[in-house]
Amino acid sequence: HGDSRDFDEEVKSVCPFCGVGCQVSLKVKDGKVKYVEGVNGPANEGRLCVKGRFGFDYIHHPHRLTKPLIRREGAEKGLNVDPSNPFTHFREATWEEALDAAAGGLAHLRDTHGGASVAGFGSAKCTNEEAYLFQKLIRQGFGHNNVDHCTRLCHASSVAALMENVGSGAVTATFNEIENADVAIVIGANPVENHPVAATYFKQFTKRGGKLIVMDPRGVGLRRFATHMLQFRPGADVSLLNAIMSVIVEEELYDRAYIEKFTENWESEKQHLAQFTPEAMEDFCGIPAQTIREVAREFAGAKAGMIFWGMGVSQHIHGTDNSRCLISLALMTGNVGKPGAGLHPLRGQNNVQGASDAGLIPMFLPDYQDVTDDGVRGAFSEIWNTGDFSAEKGLTVTEILDAVHAGQIKGMYVLGENPAMSDPDVTHAREALASLEHLVVQDIFLTETANYADVILPAAAFYEKNGTVTNTNRQVQIGRAAVSPPGEAREDWAITLELAKRLGLAWEYDHPSQVFAEMKRGMSSLDNISWDRLENVGAVTYPSLSPEDPGQAIVFGDGFPRSEGRARFTPASVIAPDETPDAEYPMILTTGRQLEHWHTGSMTRRSKVLDAVEPQANCSLHPGTLRKMGVEPGGKVRLETRRGSITLMARADRAIAPDMVFLPFAYVEAAANILTNPALDPYGKIPEFKFAAVRVTAA
Ligand code: SF4
């Protein structure tokens, strides 16, 4: 950890991992980050979790890309490159040569097959300015909207439901607002591991008497603090939530005045819920009717209640329906727009909120402005000083890889994403990447996706660059460069700028602050937030109503940004998971993160402390299930689905139901997504990562 005098310089920035957005102080000595401490940011008040505190030394790892690389003639594409010796498949190139090759290949496809033959995956790990420039490059440089990022794999269904029913995709209240709540529901989320600093506020809330209702098919860590832990059957979310709401209707516990003033479609919601009595639903949900009634009374009877949710809600083919139910529950109890109340999807990546706000999605321009709207496109054409571009919504992450298989998309620019690990049915994704005519990958390491690249562009890590990021609370914060990138690596915005120039675009930026200033012209969410202000105060919550206003922690107290200021009830019906267990694949597979590792593992598995704590691919099963198979905890099991199989170490965990297996997805040697089902939610286009039929045997 180092002693307090053991550094030359101290630089304030933001943790690069989860959407909590903890502010950090980086202690720098001899051009390296030596250790990290929490500072008093609005979301963390000095706190950090193990990732923020110890997960920084990946930036100094010998695997860092330090020079541009070009694939050697004839080198086979596949997961076959040793990141410590990429020269078997790639040769070093100058920046000029690599940028010319990268842009030249994409321009050739555009000019031969049309702009829609090229697609882009941007990153929620980059800054707002970088996300903005990336979507602008695809739209302006290729004339269409085939640009997306990992929000598609995370909260796309939540955003679809929020946009539809509330009129805005962001949280209605910060998570810190739980301080003013009497009751809170946490459903389909495991904040103790995935949003650890937010979880500390949830625990404190219970210490001062707040009622915490946790609902999850896994007995997640917060259960020890819960007044009720509802470990419902996987996939039964809609039936459970509808049953809770049916009690509120039946016992007239709803907030009549709020419903009349601020909502629409209440009557049809009410009628729809009549069939979902707790007694009718208890067997299906696996939760006794009496418990469902108690929870309904607890939530509806409180003065102020909050609802938090994570990917256990969103990553289903009925993910949008799950969120519709949560929105309806908040609306019928009047729990939006007042202290201690609100809807809060816990966002995953450090800048997934900001990257989405910046337009890194195929159906929306910045600030969720509809790309099919001529007026909106016209406004951006003017800001960009360019002609019109396609009015057609672009393809999403998984649709883009399907279009590669179909031969429609022939080239890709991938910045900071790792679809060769992160996409469902990853064998299919890897085949798509291998079949591309031209793939440009820009990253800090030679990721699994970079194994398939034609040109690799070495980028700066988060602590090596300047830019803004927006956390789950809508807090726009400034990240500052503490150290220089290794070798010839460059900041992402500067690389995208060079590619744009080579694609014939007249872009001129010398600093991210100029990009931020351009963003403000098309994004009213950034009103009253300037680069200088962020430099001075570190963070401003949007919306900010004046240059002095620190921003609105709670929104929609006086109505919603949709028709006549009213939010909407959208009734949700029960839809079975896409692939249910059967005799051949009798168990349920669910995937997620672990406290120590982040997403595809490229950063945290190269962080000494984190890798030492959690070094090995693993899955968790109920001890009784392991016993039946004759496997000791720590022994090996084989997991098979209709898409493939993996073998890995099994842990015993009593919190897992006997017919379930929990599988973290950070380990390339036993990649979870070899097994997952690519079936999509029809609205959010999010894959069903949380449910697949699996066979588990001793290995
Ligand atoms: Fe970083 Fe999230 Fe941990 Fe905070 S809670 S230190 S943002 S990983």
From TrEMBL:
The keyword Iron-sulfur applies. GO terms for molecular function: 4 iron, 4 sulfur cluster binding; formate dehydrogenase (NAD+) activity; metal ion binding; molybdopterin cofactor binding; NADH dehydrogenase activity. GO terms for cellular component: membrane; oxidoreductase complex. GO terms for biological process: formate metabolic process; respiratory electron transport chain. Keywords: 4Fe-4S, Iron, Iron-sulfur, Metal-binding, Oxidoreductase, Repeat. The keyword 4Fe-4S applies. In the C-terminal section; belongs to the prokaryotic molybdopterin-containing oxidoreductase family. This is Formate dehydrogenase major subunit. It comes from Primorskyibacter sedentarius. The chain holds residues 223 to 921 of 921 of the full protein.
